[in-house]
């Protein structure tokens, strides 16, 4: 028997549809996943087998082939556990024909059959709204996905709940978007800063005008302190901007269950040992870098000269274009990166006093 479920893959911050085809045919018991799966997707076999058995559902002793289409797109992460498991159950006729057609499925399965949250739920929900599909996710992702208007997001705690929902036995209630947008701790106040009138004015002008800023001063003069107060001076993000920022943070798996839209401009201050991929994005499992996590907010590079020359050079493109394009062998990823750069440095590695003495 063949069953087809729908899921998605992330390319940069955009989600694209992935069709999960599950074929169960007679033969020696085997379980293969094809369609460019990475290690985490291949390991789905073990999780799916255990989750189905521990949910008290039948696991076929037959030849199972799972195909993730389109076959030339790399599939990463554990989010295909849920569609594969439900596809397997549908292939055994535990679900009515067509039950999987109208729902986008994504979730990692625990061995006991509970559904764990995944990264990129907001991006998936956006795709579902374009494709006019419902979304079925782990409970931990549901409120986040419900931020997208016009999509029915069903939160499922376990594989069994998902099965009952799709077969119409016990339909789940759609999740609602959290009422309060997250706003984290209150931003630091510029009132804590004593004196430094010029530096403060420079910061205010830079933030108001969208300029980048370099703070140069002797140790302990308050550069770090000043830069930390930058996000408090920026206005709240509009809904469209907040959605953009939330998508990036969701793709990076940084949004939490209760957090709603990210309304406060982000503030990122990576350490100077940050890797190129950490700063710009990409890596073997592609993730948005610090420049994209700071999109619509502030990227603060403290101790600026300590960053590697290469890292600083890679900042040129995002600073000019407002986005990062990472070309890989199989795909080219685009991450928005329109941030304000604030950098801080001492006049020389020994501090201004030493310079003075040496002169
Ligand atoms: N203008 C100021 N008003 C109030 N407190 C200040 C001021 N400048 C410095 N401080 C105090 O000194 C501490 C150290 O300042 P800060 O870390 O911002 O200095 P810095 O310029 O970043 O130094 P470094 O070059 O060593 O990184 C602050 O946490 C704050 O407590
Ligand atoms: Mg400092």
Automatic annotation (TrEMBL):
Coiled coil: none annotated. Gene3D superfamilies: 3.30.230.10, P-loop containing nucleotide triphosphate hydrolases (3.40.50.300). PROSITE patterns: MCM_2. It comes from Deinococcus rubellus. The keyword Mitochondrion does not apply. Belongs to the Mg-chelatase subunits D/I family. ComM subfamily. SUPFAM superfamilies: P-loop containing nucleoside triphosphate hydrolases, Ribosomal protein S5 domain 2-like. Residues 289-347 form the MCM C-terminal AAA(+) ATPase domain. It holds the Pfam family ChlI. NCBIfam families: YifB family Mg chelatase-like AAA ATPase. This is YifB family Mg chelatase-like AAA ATPase. The keyword ATP-binding applies. InterPro entries: AAA+_ATPase, CHLI-like, MCM_dom, Mg_chelat-rel, Mg_chelatse_chII-like_cat_dom, P-loop_NTPase, Ribosomal_Su5_D2-typ_SF, Ribsml_uS5_D2-typ_fold_subgr. Keywords: ATP-binding, Nucleotide-binding.
């Amino acid at each position: 028997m063949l069953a087809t479920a729908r899921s998605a893959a992330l390319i940069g911050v955009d989600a694209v549809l992935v069709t999960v085809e599950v074929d169960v045919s007679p033969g020696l018991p085997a379980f293969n996943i094809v369609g460019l799966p990475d290690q985490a997707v291949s390991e789905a076999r073990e999780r799916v087998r255990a989750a189905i058995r521990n949910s008290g559902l039948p696991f076929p002793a037959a030849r199972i082939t799972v195909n993730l289409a389109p076959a030339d797109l790399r599939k990463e992460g554990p989010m295909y556990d849920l569609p594969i498991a439900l596809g397997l159950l549908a292939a055994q006729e535990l679900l009515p024909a067509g039950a999987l057609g109208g729902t986008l499925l994504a979730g990692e399965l625990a061995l006991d059959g509970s559904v764990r949250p995944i990264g990129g739920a907001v991006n998936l929900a956006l795709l579902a709204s374009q494709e006019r599909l419902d979304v079925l996710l782990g409970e931990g992702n549901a409120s986040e996905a419900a931020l997208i208007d016009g999509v029915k997001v069903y939160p499922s705690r376990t594989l069994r709940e998902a099965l009952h929902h799709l077969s119409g036995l016990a339909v789940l209630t759609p999740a609602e978007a959290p009422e309060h947008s997250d706003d984290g701790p209150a931003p630091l106040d510029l009132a804590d800063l004593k004196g430094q009138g010029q530096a403060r004015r420079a910061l205010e002008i830079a933030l108001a005008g969208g300029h980048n800023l370099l703070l140069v001063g002797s140790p302990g003069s308050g550069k770090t302190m000043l830069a930390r107060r930058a996000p408090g001076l920026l206005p709240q993000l509009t809904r469209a901007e907040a959605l953009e920022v939330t998508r990036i943070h969701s793709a990076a798996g940084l949004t939490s269950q209760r957090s709603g839209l990210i309304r406060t401009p982000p503030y990122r201050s990576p350490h100077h040992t940050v890797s190129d991929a950490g700063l710009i994005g990409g890596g073997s499992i592609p993730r948005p870098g610090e420049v994209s996590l700071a999109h619509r907010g502030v990227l603060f590079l403290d101790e600026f000269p300590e960053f590697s020359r290469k890292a600083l050079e890679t900042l040129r493109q995002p600073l000019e274009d407002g986005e990062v394009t990472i070309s890989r062998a199989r795909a080219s990823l685009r991450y928005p990166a329109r941030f304000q750069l604030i950098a801080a440095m001492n006049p020389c590695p020994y501090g201004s006093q030493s310079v003075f003495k040496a002169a």
